[in-house]
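TL;DR need structure tokens for one chain.
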Amino acid sequence: MNGEFINLDTAKKIQEDKNMDKDLLKIIQNYGISNQLKKLSEELYEFQEAVIEREIHWNYDTEIQDIKPLEKHIAEEMTDIMVMLMQFKEYYHIDGKEIMKIMREKIDRQLGRIENESK
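>> reply
TL;DR here they are.
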């Protein structure tokens, strides 16, 4: 798999897709917060299952021929989670730039912790 999750250009394109924003909002307004929270939990569980399946096959299945389908499954489950999270982002009017800023802060803080652990 490519080492890149979502680069800033892709995040900006997603943010600029106003139709996507409207569609995401329509979905969460239709099903409601409670139902979408349950759906998010389901999607997180499916993601965990996909990762575990890939790791088991990669680490213990000596006859595995192609890991790509398992990694594609992880990407699909990750996308499901992102769609769910973006619904909540739209519902609560959270700015994507603010999310990116907070992500950077959290990443930097964790890197600082890692650096301190190695001292």
